[in-house]
């Protein structure tokens, strides 16, 4: 068994960019910054590091991200980590690692940029209950 799950809470670096696949499926991409703070044990100096995470949200979740998320907004993202290859203009093979969002929750004070409930992924089995009794 293996698990591929990422959970981050951070702030958007820019408004999401929403595009559509040839079949019309919305795809939102955006960057979320997370900060880490600590005190260096050797020097006693406070340290800080910012990590940027590329987020991709598909379908209805992508539409919602594009409509409600804005630069600076704090957000909770839950999804899986994917690395995909692509070619640059010179034909060199490159790789991008991103979090494919399955759950998004806008954080912050009530009334900021319009709040929505947690967006859960749609059931993969078409909404049918499985045979497990719990």
Q: How is the topology of this model organized?
A:
Elements: E1 6-12, E2 17-20, E3 26-39, E4 46-58, H1 59-68, E5 74-87, E6 93-106
Parallel strand pairs: 4-6
Antiparallel strand pairs: 1-3, 1-5, 2-3, 3-4, 5-6
Largest sheet: 5 strands, mixed, barrel
Which class of secondary structure composition applies to the elements? mainly beta
Number of domains: 1
Unreliable sequence segments = 113-119, 123-130
**Continuous helix count:** 1
Order of helices and strands: EEEEHEE
Rg over alpha carbons: 18 Å
| CATH class placement | Mainly Beta
Give the integer mean of the pLDDT values: 86
Q: Percent helix among the residues?
A: under 10%
Write down how many β-strands occur, each being a DSSP E stretch of 2 or more residues. 6
What would CATH call the homologous superfamily? Nucleic acid-binding proteins
**Termini separation:** 21 Å
What topology, given as strand order, has the largest sheet? 1-3-4-6-5
CATH domain topology? OB fold (Dihydrolipoamide Acetyltransferase, E2P)
Second CATH tier, the architecture: Beta Barrel
Q: What's the shape?
A: globular
Strand content: over 45%
